[in-house]
Amino acid sequence: MTAPRRDTPTPRLPLPTRVEMFVRLLMIQSAYNYELLLGNGIAYCVEPALRRLPGGPDGAAYREALARESQYFNAHPYLAAVAVGALARAELEGAQPARIERFRTALCGPLGSVGDRLVWAGWLPFCSLLALAAYGLGASPLVVLLLFLGLYNAGHLGLRGWGLAVGWRHGLRVASALATPVMRDGPAHLARAAALVAGIALPLALQRAIGPGRALLGGVVIIVAVMGALAARLPQRLQGWRLALGVLAIWIAYSIAQHTVTR
Amino acid sequence: MFDAEHLATLVVLGAVLGLDVVSFPQAMLSRPLVAATAGGAVMGDPVSGLLAGATLELVALETLPVGASRYPEWGSASVIGGALIGASGQATPGSLSVALFAAIATGWIGGYTMVQMRALNARWARSLHPAIAAGSRRAVLGLQFAGLAADLIRGALLTSAALLAFEPLATITLAVWEADARVSRAVAVTVAASVAAAAVWKLFRVTPGARWYLAAGLALGLVSMVLM
Known about the structure:
The complex is a heterodimer.
Chain A: H1 15-25, H2 39-50, H3 60-69, H4 80-92, H5 97-136, H6 141-170, H7 174-177, H8 181-210, H9 214-232, H10 240-262
Helix pairs in contact in A: 1-2, 2-3, 2-4, 4-5, 4-6, 5-6, 5-8, 8-9
Chain B: H1 4-22, H2 32-42, H3 46-60, H4 74-88, H5 95-127, H6 129-133, H7 137-175, H8 181-204, H9 210-227
Helix pairs in contact in B: 1-2, 1-4, 1-7, 2-3, 2-4, 3-4, 3-5, 3-8, 4-5, 4-7, 5-7, 5-8
């Protein structure tokens, strides 16, 4: 039993099976925990394909493969689709269990780090900042939501679909397929685009949120620049949202205290 | 006071959007821009909800949902923020400050409940280990659906508790609020934008050339702000 050769034609996976695997990918983190991480989710997503193993869902091959696929696994949830496609093909082609396990171990790191940089540190802030820019330009709630959700999910669902397809097409050789320009240079390009949009979005969003009044707005922009610069130098553990909560608590207490004093 | 219909709708919304954070489908329906606007819309004021959503989104730019790290649960939390500002209206002095405070506090508690949720999933996984190791389809699917259902219940309980706690507190606080409406709103937005400015800098400064793009964007944004 060997891994598929590079020139082996891609076997066909029936459309209903692929659709079921894709839908299950949206639930891959439902049983996320600190011990198996995505392990059970991978088994859950690969399972529709495993039913095609000799003996079907009652056979020994199915049970052995399902047990193997439910072990510890870690990756970015969207790019885990690559692993699901590749593992499904490896299991159906009868790759050696030891090779599958080595493949699973080797894939965790790249799928995690590339996904984090591409999606969490690139695509998500880019879409979020673009929607904030639209808000700042006066867009209605519906337009802001449609822009954000439409754009973000075009990338999100596209990435999951691409991952499943490329994983299935390349099987255990999928690592080479991941060395695409999008995966290699995409995070840096996205970061630059998001930085440009951030610069545009922040002043515009501030202006709309505060409302008319040049003097107040000018003062706020200067304070934000100073406080932002200070906050950027704070240790990582002093997260900004904690400081925001503290400042808001003090501000609310001050406003209530003012009432007591004026009475 | 929220009536029973509003409460029920908000609890369902908080549960569903809390589920989106990690379990299903991670389509970013749980981002503050979306969730707070939806919360405001339930109260009949999506524009106020969007104001709370945009301000919370500035804070949320700092917290990326990376794997096993702990971060605020913005889905259910933003529903609370949007509902509170939607109930009072953005013109009410202090409404944005109170909505923001309630949302961030709920997000903080929500982050803790997500950690407990993962620990519960781990306990279930341990108890099902013999069956999963034997390749039981029922065990694999059962663990997945149990996690999904528990997360939905977590979001519903969190939203209910936050509504019960913050709705009366918001009513009492806004009744005695003394500070000027515009200044109050400016304080809340300044705090959120400062977090966003720091987050943007930390996020993009490591990418070669990104700081120049940020500077160019800022120039464009400030010119547009002056011209508008």
